[in-house]
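ok so for the tutorial part 2 we go from a plain amino acid sequence to predicted structure tokens. step 1 is just haveing the sequence, like this:
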Amino acid sequence: MIRAVKQARQGRVAILQFHGTPDTAHSWVNTSSENFKAFMKYLLIHKYTVISLRDLSRYKMTDAVPRDPQQIIRSRQLQLKSTLKDAASGKDG
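step 2 — the prediction. this is what the tokens look like for a chain of 93 residues:
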């Protein structure tokens, strides 16, 4: 979370999605109440502005659309696979 929000500078926006706090029906996307409170406290201490996604256009107007919106997801999946492979083989990544 910290790495993600630190990217919100120089006109850039970090988008965090919380599915539930807690979400007992969907445990794979659950955020504990304690973690959620800690996340929000971090944002407050570091003076981040928190808004709902529907209000984003008030702050940043852009028509820029990523050429391939799934690219970052694929990139992170490959990085994770590589990290797991290295961990399984005993290599330091």
